[in-house]
């Protein structure tokens, strides 16, 4: 990756490599199952899934922006936001990403993009309205570290296999419906493909969740060290998490598909099953920032 002043994280790098290795292994298993079981239909599925993969990888920033209702803003439209991003990019020695605002009362932010020169950072209007300048810079530094470390691109690729598994499951079910010659071999093939796809989806889901939780801690650490103000990031995290309880449940459910990319998960309460959570607990994140504050000699 292009060198920046964000603190490197070998633990994050090793986890990204491990995640991509297992995702690639799973992909080979899926392709093998398609070749053996779907016979003539596997080529069509591969073409469609390949097209979806390319679209998701190359246009992930636009897809995320569209899904979140984000729009790119000029420095004249959002001078404070652009000013904060300009300062942080200069401090981190990295290219400036596209700057967007999502008209949503949910206080949150996210970043996406396959590399530093094709990236996007987005803050919601609810976040801009609630945070102080130092707190906002902490959140933006957190999101920029995702771009610098390229874990956003890895998450995009890794999450794709789960989507592909779902497509294959539907294709397998569809291929076994409406046939006049429903023999035992066809039924067995459909069941096997469906079972393999379900297992792949579960494994892919768990891998992305484990990586997602670590990368959030890594981004908190990198942002705190870059800005030198862990307490400001902790204050922003506490404020954002506390405000989630005031957001209507309907709005939180609409935002839930983007939780893995958010600064803080769009939940009104802690997830009961931590293994399924896309983020570490608030206590874990605050504890890390507290230790960093002590190391830097700040309250």
Automatic annotation (TrEMBL):
Q: How many cofactors are bound and how?
A: Binds 1 zinc ion per subunit.
Origin, by domain of life? Bacteria
Cofactors (names) = Zn(2+)
Q: Which HAMAP family match?
A: Pept_M48_protease_HtpX (MF_00188)
Going by the UniProt record, its keywords in alphabetical order are: Cell membrane, Hydrolase, Membrane, Metal-binding, Metalloprotease, Protease, Transmembrane, Transmembrane helix, Zinc
Q: Which GO terms describe its molecular function?
A: metallopeptidase activity
Name of the gene this protein is made from: htpX_2
InterPro entries linked to this entry: HtpX_protease, Pept_M48_protease_HtpX, Peptidase_M48
Q: Pfam families from the entry?
A: Peptidase_M48 (PF01435)
Organism source for this protein?
Streptomyces olivaceiscleroticus
Q: Where in the cell is it found?
A: Cell membrane
The residues covered by the Peptidase M48 domain are 76-289
Q: What is this protein called?
A: Protease HtpX homolog
Transmembrane residue ranges: 12-35, 41-59, 152-174, 186-207
Q: Which residues bind Zn(2+)?
A: 142, 146, 216
The record's similarity note reads:
Belongs to the peptidase M48B family.
Q: Which residues form the active site?
A: 143
Enumerate the CDD domains for this protein. M48B_HtpX_like (cd07327)
Please give, as recorded in its UniProt entry, the membrane topology of this protein. Multi-pass membrane protein
* Main location, first listed in the record: membrane
- What EC number(s) does its UniProt record assign? 3.4.24.-
């Amino acid at each position: 990756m292009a060198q920046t002043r964000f603190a490197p994280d070998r633990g994050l790098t090793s986890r990204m490599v491990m995640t991509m290795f297992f995702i690639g292994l799973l992909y080979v298993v899926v392709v093998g199952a398609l070749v053996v079981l779907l016979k003539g239909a596997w080529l069509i599925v591969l073409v469609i899934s390949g097209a979806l993969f390319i679209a998701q990888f190359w246009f992930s920033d636009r897809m995320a922006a569209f899904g979140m209702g984000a729009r790119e803003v000029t420095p004249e439209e959002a001078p404070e936001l652009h000013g904060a991003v300009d300062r942080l990019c200069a401090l981190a020695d990295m290219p400036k990403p596209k700057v967007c605002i999502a008209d949503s009362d949910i206080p949150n932010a996210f970043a996406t993009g396959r590399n530093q020169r094709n990236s996007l950072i987005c803050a919601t209007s609810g976040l801009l309205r609630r945070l102080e300048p130092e707190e906002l810079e902490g959140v933006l530094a957190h999101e920029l570290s995702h771009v610098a470390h390229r874990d956003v691109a890895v998450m995009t690729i890794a999450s794709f296999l789960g989507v592909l598994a779902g497509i294959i499951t539907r294709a397998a079910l569809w291929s076994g419906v409406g046939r006049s010659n429903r023999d035992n071999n066809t039924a067995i093939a459909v069941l096997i493909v469906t079972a393999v796809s379900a297992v792949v989806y579960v494994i892919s889901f768990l891998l992305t969740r484990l990586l997602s939780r670590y990368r959030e801690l890594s981004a908190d650490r990198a942002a705190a060290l870059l800005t030198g103000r862990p307490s400001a990031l902790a204050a922003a995290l506490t404020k954002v998490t506390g405000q989630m309880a005031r957001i209507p449940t309907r709005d939180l459910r609409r935002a839930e598909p983007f939780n893995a990319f958010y600064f803080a998960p769009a939940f009104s309460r802690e997830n009961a099953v931590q293994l399924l959570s896309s983020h570490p607990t608030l206590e874990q994140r605050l504890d890390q920032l507290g230790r960093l504050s002590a190391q830097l000699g700040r309250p």
